Amino acid sequence: MMKDITILAIESSCDETAAAVVVNGRTVLSNVISSQISLHTLYGGVVPEIASRNHVERVIPVVEQALADAGKTLQEIDAVAVTYGPGLVGALLVGVSAAKAIAFAAGKPLIGVHHIEGHVAANFISHPELEPPFGCLVVSGGHTHLIEVEDYGKFEIIGKTADDAAGEAFDKVARAIGLGYPGGPKIDKKAKEGNPDAIQFPKAVVDGSPYDFSFSGLKSAVLNYLNHAEMAHETVNDADLAASFQKAVVNVLVEHSMALCEEKGYKHFAAAGGVASNSTLRESLKNACEKRGIQFYVPAPVLCTDNAAMIGCAGYYEYLKGARSGWDLNAVPNLRLGER
After folding, report:
1. To bridge 156 with a disulfide, which of 89, 111, 148, 177 should be the other Cys (CB 3.0-4.6 Å)?
2. What whole-number distance in Å separates Cα of residue 11 and Cα of residue 13?
3. If we measure between CA atoms, which residue out of 98, 112, 33 comes closest to residue 66?
4. Is residue 169 part of a domain?
């Protein structure tokens, strides 16, 4: 019988300082997240310098809490996994530095993990029965990808955004409406009060790339709508605007995803990333998959947003493949999916 592999994981790519202890990739013993939302709300978005300084203050207490919650000591850990990209360079450096120091002091292997691969891996925690290959929609603040998960840690990118990511569009539109930060959850909540058919917004098509996305035009259409209303002294119904914008985003994400499933013949399809916690997107993808006899997977909402459990899961499969990082591991803020 194979020995259990216990991974201590650290995540600090943006504005959450997180640590987790994960056994065999799918059993989460602890998952501690220290959020900075209250710090950045004042500025309407993440301020990199503030994020980095807060990570410095929080990373060791969060790691200690994760070990305590799991009932594990550093000596019982088999490896230390850490997000090294993509993300904010200063924020990433804090997590990477802490992970290197802990791994070196404890005499444990160090494993650098790709943040987006972590988001995909979150599905393995919520759905232990899921195995590659399958199709996956990755939607977050910085990424919108349609990918084929060929194997653990092996991906083919089939479609991506040509400009703004879906989460970025949510944040910018939320700011324009006056809903504040974080934009995704605020729009999701406000949209429940509105009529999604009140305003018809455009759906962008990228010529020659049927699986690529473009949300910049949609964002501009919302801003133009607001500007026109202001000049005409018309009252804007924020709930209708949020619901109509959200519908335009979700429809494109679902349509592209289902077109890919039909072309590739996928019987399993997953969603991942922070925007995958959006209630309308989750429900729409679930219904679309059910109509086509496709099994749909999405992580629990707490595992969609940035967390270290997903990094521990992805790190476990890297560990099994023999991947080890050197003490020269550095932050790579623009790391692309599939790069090492």
Report:
1. 148
2. 6
3. 33
4. yes
Residue 1 scores a pLDDT above 70: no
Residue 214 in tokens? 């473009």
Q: Indicate whether this model's pTM tops 0.70.
A: yes
**CA-closest candidate to residue 40, choices 67, 78, 14:** 14
Query: Is 249 in a helix, a strand, or coil?
Result: helix
Residue 89 corresponds to which amino acid? Answer: V
Q: In the sheet where 110-114 sits, what is the strand order?
A: 27-35, 16-23, 6-11, 79-85, 110-114
Phi-psi region of 97 (alpha: psi -120 to 50; beta: other; left: phi over 0): alpha
Long-range contact pairs involving 65-69 (C-beta distance under 8 Å, separation at least 24): 65/19, 65/30, 65/32, 66/8, 66/19, 66/20, 66/21, 66/30, 66/31, 66/32, 66/308, 67/8, 67/19, 67/21, 67/30, 68/30, 69/21, 69/29, 69/30, 69/32
Range of the domain at 267: 132-298
Confirm if 309 and 303 have CB atoms less than 8 A apart. Answer: yes
First-to-last CA distance in the chain? 31
Domain assignment present for residue 90? The answer is yes
User: In this structure, is residue 340 part of a structural domain?
Assistant: no
- Does one domain contain both 165 and 274? yes
CA-CA distances (angstroms) from residue 173 to 61, 94, 176, 182, 278?
A: 35, 31, 5, 11, 15
d(CA 274, CA 228): 32
**Do 152 and 278 lie in a common domain?**
yes
> Which of these ranges, 93-102, 147-156, 198-207, has the smallest mean pLDDT?
198-207
Greatest alpha-carbon pair distance for the chain in Å reads 73
Cα angle vertex 31, ends 27, 33, to 5°? 160
Q: Are residues 109 and 179 in the same domain?
A: no
CB contact at 8 A, 209 and 159: yes
Secondary structure class of 94 (helix, strand, coil): helix
In a domain, 46, yes or no: yes
Which tokens hold the place of 83?
């997000």
How many structural domains are present in the chain?
2
- Whose CA is closest to 274, among 58, 41, 15? 15
